[in-house]
Write a structure and sequence with these properties.
The chain is built from six helices and five strands. The N terminus and C terminus are likely disordered.
């Protein structure tokens, strides 16, 4: 049995300095019923994180201004329950380790398939619903 809270849409903030990434992800999440805000400027995204709580932040790692790890820190500072997925075209073992150490839920290398991100979000939703959802019951 699914409760209304478990089925509640996620509030998602997407930040990537490549507008195509935002344009690709936003409609996919909206189609699933989630509320989505997109940013291509890390300063604006950080300011928004200070104003509102998001369930999920998807952020690029390398950008002008604040980088993805600063966004991760900002998201966790405003709401420790916020899950963060870091995406990057500059994936290294070190940056992945640092992202996880700072609390990232997942780390996805570019170019990624939309399915990769949707699967990450499904795992986040399952975790919010609890053990019964994760076991498929």
């Amino acid at each position: 049995m699914v409760t209304n809270e478990a089925a509640a849409p996620l509030r998602i903030l997407i930040l990537d300095d490549e507008p195509i990434v935002c344009k690709r992800l936003k409609p996919a999440f909206q189609k699933l019923g989630h509320t989505v805000e997109t940013f291509t400027d890390s300063g604006q995204a950080l300011a928004r994180l200070g104003e509102a709580v998001f369930d999920l932040v998807i952020t690029d790692l390398k950008m002008e201004g604040a980088d993805g790890l600063q966004i991760l820190n900002g998201a966790k500072a405003s709401s420790p329950a916020t899950q963060v997925i870091v995406i990057t075209g500059f994936a290294t073992l070190e940056t992945a380790k640092e992202s996880y150490r700072k609390g990232a839920f997942d780390f996805v290398a570019k170019p990624f398939k939309l399915r990769d991100i949707l699967d990450c979000v499904k795992r986040i939703e399952d975790r919010r619903r609890g053990p019964a959802a994760e076991s498929g019951q």
